[in-house]
Amino acid sequence: MQRPPLRQAKTIDNVFNSAYWHLNQQDFTIAEIRSKLERKTQNSEWIKQVLNHLIEHKYLKSDLEFAIRYCESAFSNNIGKSAVQHKLKQRGISSTNIDTAIEQVIEQQAINFDDMASNRLLSRYITFDGISREKVYSQMTTKGFTRPQIDQALSQHPAQDTLRSKLAIKAEKADLASEITKLYRKGKGQSLILNELKQRLIDVSAFEDTLYQLTLAGDIDFYHSCKQQLAKKRYDLADYKEKSKAYAYLSRKGFSSDEIKEAMASEHD
């Protein structure tokens, strides 16, 4: 959506008034005020005079001074280095001024980003209930901290042992019987199903018992499934190489030797 056109300045006083009004709202960088004044007038000489006056009379900070004040404020609010760099760059400050400001404030205030990250994490999270490890890393990274700094902060958090990955949180909610059945319906054998469940961090301590109950209920029949998977591939089992390929294929699918042999025998029949 385009901004509505501003009433254009007829005199340089109009340009001054616009600049003063904006600076009364909040601090702006030179680039930001210039951008706002360029919407007010196309007279570059007026803009130049106004900016020089504002800087000379301390209404407008130099880029370096603005960057220093911004760093002081951001660091006091536990905002990390990369977030500060990104924000200042967005606001039109040069990389040289940004780096100089950051180095100066770090030295003057003895900034320790490990401590800062730890303070931010502790103030943001008393516990990690309902949030994943990935989310914590994402939020802390957005606030300007590096992975080693986040690692260090987490190592000092009293609730660190309760922070789990998205996969672990999802696994805790999983129903073992349902997950086994889903994978079975995709044509996977017992060993492959077990491996996939382990990879997804699902508790498989009741795997054998659950499998037994599903088999008794007629929900699972690996012998039948193995035959179905073999039939889909149309291997020529009379050919030794083809038979070897078929065996390897079914083995990769997680079927047992007995299941594979019976499936192949039924194909011959």
Secondary-structure element order, as H and E? HHHHHHHHHHHHHHHH
Report on the biggest sheet: none
Unreliably modeled segments: none
- Rg from Cα: 33 Å
Number of helices: 16
Shape: elongated
Strand content: under 5%
Helical fraction equals: 55-70%
Structural class: mainly alpha
The total count of strands amounts to 0
What is the domain tally?
Answer: 3
Q: Average the pLDDT over all residues and give the rounded result.
A: 90
- N-end to C-end Cα span: 72 Å
How is the secondary structure organized here?
Layout: H1 12-25, H2 30-40, H3 44-56, H4 63-76, H5 81-90, H6 95-109, H7 113-124, H8 133-142, H9 147-156, H10 166-173, H11 176-185, H12 190-199, H13 207-216, H14 222-233, H15 240-252, H16 257-268
Structure notes:
The structure is a single chain. This protein is an all-alpha fold and 269 residues long. 68% of the residues lie in helices and 0% in strands. The chain has helices at 12-25, 30-40, 44-56, 63-76, 81-90, 95-109, 113-124, 133-142, 147-156, 166-173, 176-185, 190-199, 207-216, 222-233, 240-252, 257-268. It is elongated and about 95 Å long. The N and C termini lie far apart (72 Å).
Search tags:
single chain, 269 residues, mainly alpha, Arc Repressor Mutant, subunit A, 68% helix, 0% strand, elongated
Summarize the structure.
The protein has 269 residues and is mostly helical.
